[in-house]
Amino acid sequence: MPYNTSAIPRPEEISGTSALPLARVKKIIAQDEDIAQCSNGAAFAISVATEEFLRYLTEQAYNVAKSESKPRKNIQYKDIAAAVSKLDNLQFLSDTVPRTVTYKQVKEKEKKAKDASDAANDAMNDDPNDTTANGDQTTTSKQRSIAHMMQKPGSHAHRNGTNGTANGQVGSAPASPPGQRISLSMANSPIVDRTVQNAHTHPPGDEDVEMEDQD
Fold first, then answer.
1. Measured between alpha carbons, how far is residue 134 from residues 131, 137, 200 in Å?
2. Which is one Gene Ontology cellular component term of this protein (predicted)?
3. Least CB-packed of 110, 133, 158, 161 within 10 Å?
4. Main-chain phi, psi angles of 130, to 5 degrees
5. Which helix (DSSP H) or strand (DSSP E) does residue 163 occupy?
6. What is the SS3 assignment for 54-105?
7. Predicted local confidence at residue 165, as pLDDT
8. Cα–Cα dist 204/215, whole Å
């Protein structure tokens, strides 16, 4: 036996009854744990409000069905979902009645999300400062600037008669004047520095001469 799909007309006079079965409405209300007890009057008011809401939702979905290029007399799920997405006072049903999408659209969305995730991972893994050219790792701009400064003439630190490098290594000591014999291990000593600064330079030819025994 087919279901009765004929529309129930709105009553012209208030009859004090609801089109929804009141006993079933009470059972649905009793399933809510937050409601300890509900009176008959409250259950009836909820039933009438639910009836009015369903009537309004059906009318809006029917308006969507009539506004299509091929108007229809029966409403479908997509009509209700379209009405929920268009009307502001029905936005609270967007999670309950979401708009349907095709399987192709779902696959395309998943593919785009995967491509975006892969691109983000590649960007994180590829450091622009660590790129290689012809199999040789290129240095960063900061490292290149430091190397350029080290190669400039006069960039080596000349301190206390010793040649220093950027790495703090002591280079070869310059030739000491006659009478000044300073070992490299004592080159950085403050005592030796003062001695060197205060020492008098001997004129050429005034070196110490070792006398040989002629006996």
1. 10, 8, 58
2. CHRAC
3. 133
4. -115, 20
5. strand 162-164
6. HHHHHHHHHHHHHCCCCCCCCCCHHHHHHHHHHCHHHHHHCCCCCCCCCHHH
7. 45
8. 30
Structure tokens at 94: 């967007």
Centroid of chain to Cα 85? 30
Q: CA 14, CA 20: separation in Å to the nearest integer?
A: 15
pLDDT digits (tens, 9 = 90+) for 151-196: 655 544 444 444 444 444 444 445 555 444 444 445 455 554 555 4
pLDDT reported for residue 155: 45
In angstroms, how far apart are the furthest CA atoms of the chain? 156
Residue 183, pLDDT score: 47
| pLDDT for the residue 206 | 52
CA-nearest of 75, 25, 30, 79 to 50 is 25
d(CA 106, CA 81): 18
